[in-house]
Design goal:
Length: about 200
Amino acid sequence: MPGQSVDLAVQFDFSEFVIWGDQMGAAADQLPFALSLSLNQSLTKARQVMVNEWPTKVETRNVSFIGTSLRMEFSRKDSLVASIFDRLKLPIIQTLATGGRRRPFKAQRLAIPLKSWVNRGPHGVIAKQQPARIAKDTPKRALRIVGNRMFVGESGRLHLRYTFERQAPQPKMLNFYEDFVYVLTNGMRTGFAEAMQRAMRSRK
């Protein structure tokens, strides 16, 4: 749910894989190993798709952040359960994947710049246009904080630069859930035969 950390899981009906295993002449006790192997391989691919998607959709200073946050719990042949979870438990990942309300992580309020004025670089708002830098560089007589808004005086007029809010609408930006389900289900179906053959070879 929005506001919680992301935790991705999907349930499978393994009956079709049982049929495929029978058609390949596999023994019943070889099936769990093949399913676990195929599931874990698909899980790894799904996580990589998510890691690759993050920097194309989200402006961030730390491009390795999402790789640090998203972790995998692998299945075993005696426990066919696998998932991708947010190790850092940051609600923003969930919010970006579903849409909802964005809230500040460390600060008390979100600093929302005027879109028609702000310039963004590869890591977000450029340094000289960030609120702390504006407060530092602007003469006191030209800086105004009125309510939850920051204004800067230029050419005899006050110009709005930032609005500070406790929360703000956040549109959906990531396809984590859709990608996870697609990659995992497709990977299981396309990779099962090879995994089953590996399981059968290990018996010999």
